Input
Amino acid sequence: GENKRCMDCHKNNPNYVVTTSPSGDEFGFFVCDGCADLHSAKQHRVKGVGVAHFTEEEMRVIRANGNEVASRKWRATFDPSTFPFPQPGQKSHIQSFIVSTY
Output
């Protein structure tokens, strides 16, 4: 269920996976096209679900994480009362959210 919404803006039916960061952080979570662009701008490795080939290592990362596990890891100290979750289409808010989260 969790992987059916974008990790960052909660848009339905995300079609990209963010696998890793340049420093080697393992993500393995699903995002929409708009958030995928923002992750790519941060040099995070992003792949399209239906078109990309995933290595065994990338599949291991995705299976070990997903949105629920990644959310617990990356948002353990997140307080939505001080910085609310962004909504789809709020590009500048989503960008700030991604920068502060990862």
In short: The radius of gyration is 13 Å.
